[in-house]
Specification:
- By secondary structure, the protein is of the alpha+beta class.
- It folds into six domains: 2-153, Beta-Lactamase, CATH 3.30.450; 171-267, PAS domain (Beta-Lactamase), CATH 3.30.450; 271-400, PAS domain (Beta-Lactamase), CATH 3.30.450; 418-521, PAS domain (Beta-Lactamase); 533-697, 2-Layer Sandwich (Alpha-Beta Plaits); 714-956, EAL domain (TIM Barrel, Alpha-Beta Barrel), CATH 3.20.20.450.
- Helix content is 42%, strand content 26%.
- An eight-stranded mixed β-barrel has the order 28-29-31-32-33-34-35-36. Strands 2-1-5-4-3 form a five-stranded antiparallel sheet, sandwiched between helices. It has a five-stranded antiparallel sheet with strand order 7-6-10-9-8.
- The chain is elongated, with a radius of gyration of 44 Å.
- It starts with a helix and ends with a helix.
- GO terms for molecular function: ATP binding; cyclic-guanylate-specific phosphodiesterase activity; kinase activity.
- Residues 708-959 form the EAL domain.
- Residues 561-699 form the GGDEF domain.
Length: 959
């Protein structure tokens, strides 16, 4: 992993801005080194690593917090599907697979991540293959940083850019963008119109190709001054495509960071003519002002109104006497009116000849105070040597209103909903694009025709008559309807029809809005299937089955017929999963479901409760119990025969069978929960009878069941009433010195006395009580260690605690162990946890992850009953155990069986080779002890040294 981190550090040098961190990552010798661990914890990025199955093997604290975890070890063994970002899991795992398959890093790409509180983050991620010592890819190493804020800024900047681009494209002013040499890179439509050239013709031309006033040398000199000063405003002449000239007012800026110019152009030919006319015929100004349909106002350099035409007077509602000599700010709303004099002063500080308004839209104020939209162009002019302003104004209220109404109407019509408008005779007059998309018909194909072109044939005349009556009575109809697409398929849609009436209340048109609800109805069906059907076999699930069973029991009470419940469990199903894989197991379950449905009648129900458990509900059996039992028995025999027939799984012939429990019910039957328990009890009796058979529930089973229920109830009270206790069986070394003990739980029953684990632990496993018992044992063992930790006589001892499979595979198991160690402030090495081989092989990847997390804490790990499994040696090198416990069955048989002796000798040698401590349990005789010592065994447990004893007796061994 170190190499991969180094490579990431090199490839992300821009990302890792902290140079000290960069150097530290490159210099680290071992990822287990504390300094290196501190580095990855302090790096401002998230780091993680996974195995070839995309299961997390580790991460830094920053990553764990992103995942909503308190500590990095909690990530071990998890996949992205189990974390807050499960929606992105498939994308993440796909990236992992691509990196591992190609053995090539994927660097600096962007992706999203969902946080535990539902927020969506943007990440910049890099992943690279993680190799073992043989250069084989065994996983991936990843690092990412949160770029959500940067992404937001980028999106904001992009939105601003698009907004400015839109403004420029819509502007009435011409626009250029050129490079630093003056070559045109972009223009807007306004400049195309001004110049007579197309955009394609303009791009690539040099400024000098269009400039008609300055020479080439003057243009190049002017460009240099603009670069130096950052911008300029000036007037010049440009040449159109047809050779004619036009006066241009230019405002140009040099963008130093980008190395380009942006320039805005306004055709001031008309203004120049007006200025010339004013200079030549100032006396004719009044007549000229009143001959145009545009309002014109002349303003002095002090902001006072000197002249205006009648259009302007009518527009603002003032008489000539009321406006002449007044400050122009009386025509402006706040805050422009207050700031206008300052604007004038600032503008007067610049040179003459600039256009202020540039034909923009502004808000103006009438005499009565009403505000209205106005199009404004203000020019800076010379009136007989005196500087002044002339404003051209136009009231655009009606135009704006019309534009807004048209925009609203167009937007409302072109929605995602299909829209069809018909006249009063139901002839189609208009449809929108969504109509075409939903129905498949174009506007040309339906205009002039009637809506019945869409009829599916699923609704009768009564349906349409009621629709017409509702429409006539209320002016609207709304509901679900099926129509036929142009290609012939029928689809559901939600339709709303509304009458359109004129001012006299007469219907003139009908407007129909609709949308396709096929996906919604399909989703509803999928949700129903997920809620009521098993996804693997498509059989009813437990929820739907219980509803059917409840209905069946109610029916038997009404019709006096019997019913029967058959509870099935496949025999040896685990062997299929273990030997052929889960895919073969799933294939077997699907085939069993298929065969079961072929064994029953149409009125009966077959359901899957989970795993390899199925139930069959038989209804409407005979009124007489013995005849109903015979009917149920025949069906059970048929099922047993069908399910015992050979299966072909992965092209391998496989034999299976089933155990079936049967319970009859009638009008006096018990409730459904009791029926299920009775059927389950009968099924277990069938299993105990040799499997591949069936058993009816009977009174003796009921008594056994009641006894079991009583024991379960009492066991639930055992912890609360302090009836559980620990006893301790010593563990010794070769010299007989005490090295620790195994803590064993006993139930001190007030009536039955001491109950051994074999009589209550299986029941606890089955009912889930083992979780509470396991927590109690762990807590009690650590409480005892707390009394030993500061006593030199006991501080070197270890205490072994057995862990159940259900307890181990709880998501919080590692956290619970850490919490109880911290509670008593124990040295973790004093605690040793014992796991059976079959338990850790249930889910090897999750088991390894949790065991590595426990080893990191410092807890000892021991494999109990080693050698009784079927794949011990193949997994032993992968499981991070500290100790192997040889099962007592091998110890007992060593003298009588050479095979057992060879196995024990091999295990001891193998443990020594792998650096594991080996302990033999069940040592009861001196000859066993001597033989084990000759094999090289160093640690022992058994009755030869001591039986399990209470804590007082145990502590006297060291006093």
């Amino acid at each position: 992993m170190l190499k991969e981190l180094r490579d990431l550090a090199k490839s992300k040098s821009k990302l890792l801005k902290d140079e000290l961190l960069h150097e530290a990552l490159l210099a680290a010798d071992d990822y287990t080194d504390p300094v290196f661990k501190e580095i990855i914890e302090k790096v401002p990025f998230r780091i993680f690593w996974k195995d070839v199955h995309s299961r997390y093997l580790g991460c830094n604290t920053q990553f764990a917090w992103d995942a909503g975890l308190k500590h990095p070890h909690q990530i071990v063994g998890k996949t992205d599907h189990e974390l807050a970002w499960s929606n992105e899991a498939e994308q993440y795992i796909g990236d992992d697979l691509a990196v591992m398959q190609s053995a090539t890093p994927k660097l600096n790409y962007e992706e999203t991540q969902t946080t535990p509180d539902g927020r969506r983050l943007w990440l910049r991620t890099s992943k690279m293959p993680f190799r073992d010592a043989n250069d084989v890819v065994v996983g991936i190493l990843g690092i990412y940083e949160d770029i959500t804020e940067q992404r937001g800024m980028q999106l904001q900047l992009e939105a601003e850019r698009r907004r400015y681009t839109t403004v420029i494209q819509a502007s009435a002013e011409g626009f250029w963008l050129t490079d630093s040499r003056g070559v045109i890179q972009e223009v807007n439509p306004a400049y195309e119109h001004l110049s007579g050239y197309t955009r394609e013709e303009l791009i690539g031309l040099h400024v000098t190709d269009l400039e008609a006033k300055e020479s080439t040398e003057e243009v190049l000199s002017h460009i240099s001054r603009i670069i130096e000063n950052g911008g300029d405003c000036f007037e010049t002449l440009h040449r159109r495509k047809d050779g004619s000239l036009w006066d241009a007012e230019v405002s140009v800026s040099f963008i130093e960071n980008g190395g380009y110019f942006i320039a805005f152009f306004r055709d001031i030919t008309q203004r120049k003519l007006l200025e010339k006319a004013h200079r030549e015929q100032e006396a004719r100004l009044g007549a000229l002002l009143n001959t145009t349909a545009i309002g014109i106002v002349v303003i002095s350099d002090r902001g006072e109104i000197e002249e205006f035409n009648s259009v302007c007077a009518d527009m603002f509602g003032y008489t000539r006497e009321e406006l002449l000599g007044k400050n122009v700010n009386v025509l402006m709303p706040e805050p422009d009116s207050r700031n206008h004099d300052r604007y004038i002063r600032e503008y007067m500080g610049g040179g003459p000849g600039r256009i202020i308004g540039k034909g923009r839209e502004v808000v103006a104020r009438k005499k009565n105070g009403a505000a209205f939209p106005m199009e404004l162009l203000v020019g800076d002019v010379d009136l007989a040597g005196r500087r002044a302003f002339i404003g051209f104004v136009k009231d655009v209220s009606e135009r704006k209103k019309t534009e807004q109404e048209l925009l609203i109407a167009a937007t409302a019509f072109e929605t995602l909903e299909g829209t069809m408008i018909t006249d009063v005779d139901s002839c189609i007059v208009r449809v929108n694009q969504a109509f075409t998309k939903i129905t498949g018909y174009s506007a040309e194909e339906v205009i002039g025709k009637r809506p019945n072109i869409l009829k599916s044939g699923r609704h009768d005349n009564a349906f349409y008559q009621q629709m017409y009556l509702d429409l006539k009575a209320r002016g609207q109809w709304q509901g679900e309807i099926y129509d036929r697409h142009k290609d012939g398929h029928i689809y559901p849609k939600w339709l709303t029809i509304t009458s359109v009436k004129d001012i006299d209340g007469r219907v003139t048109h009908y407007v129909a809005n609709f949308f396709d609800i096929s996906e919604r109805k399909a989703a509803e069906e999928r949700i129903r299937n997920l809620a009521f059907y098993d996804t693997l076999t498509a059989l009813p699930n437990r929820r739907l089955f219980l509803e059917k069973l409840e209905h069946a029991t109610a029916t038997t009470r009404r019709n006096a017929l019997h019913g029967a419940l058959l509870y099935l469990d496949l025999d040896n199903f685990k062997i299929v999963n273990d030997s052929q894989g889960h895919q073969a197991g799933d294939e077997l379950l699907r085939e069993v479901a298929h065969r079961l449905k072929g064994c029953v009648r149409q009125i009966d129900t077959v359901a899957r409760l989970g795993g390899d458990e199925f139930v069959v509900l038989l209804e409407e059996l005979d009124t007489f119990e013995d005849q109903a039992a015979k009917q149920a028995m025949r069906i059970a025999e048929k099922i047993a025969d069908e399910l015992s027939a050979p299966y072909t799984l992965n092209n391998v012939l496989f034999q299976s069978s089933s155990s079936i429990g049967i319970v009859l019910f009638s009008e006096g039957a018990v409730n459904i929960d009791t029926l299920l328990i009775q059927a389950d009890t009968a099924m277990y009796e069938a299993k105990k009878s040799g499997k591949n058979t069936y058993r009816f529930f009977n009174p003796e089973m009921q008594r056994t069941l009641e006894k079991r229920i009583e024991i379960e109830r009492e066991l639930r009270l055992a912890i609360a009433h302090g009836q559980l206790r620990l006893i301790y069986q010593p563990q010794v070394d070769n010299e007989g010195r005490l090295i620790g003990a195994e803590a064993l739980v006993r139930w001190q029953h007030p009536r039955l006395g001491t109950v051994l684990p074999g009589h209550f632990i299986p029941l606890a496993e089955e009912t889930g009580l083992i979780l509470d018992i396991g927590k109690w044992v762990l807590e009690e063992a650590c409480r005892q260690l707390d009394t030993w930790k500061d006593d030199p006589r006991f501080s070197k001892l270890t205490l072994a605690v057995n862990v159940s499979a259900k307890q181990f595979y709880q998501p919080s198991f590692v956290d619970e162990v850490v919490a109880v160690l911290e509670k008593y402030r124990l040295p973790p090495a004093m605690l040793k946890l014992e796991f059976t081989e079959s338990m850790v092989l249930e889910d090897t990847y999750e088991a390894i992850g949790k065991m590595l997390a426990l080893k990191e804490v410092g807890v000892g790990l021991s494999m109990d009953d080693f050698g009784t499994g079927y794949s011990s040696l193949s997994y032993l090198t992968r499981l991070p155990f500290d100790q192997l416990k040889i099962d007592r069955s091998f110890i007992q048989d060593m003298r009588e069986s050479s095979d057992s002796a060879l196995i024990v000798h091999t295990v001891i040698a193998l443990g020594s080779r792998l650096g594991m401590n080996v302990i033999a349990e069940g040592v009861e005789r001196d000859d066993q002890y001597a033989l084990l010592k000759s094999f090289g065994c160093h640690n022992y447990q058994g009755y030869l040294f001591s039986a399990p004893i209470d804590i007082r007796q145990f502590e006297t061994l060291l006093t």
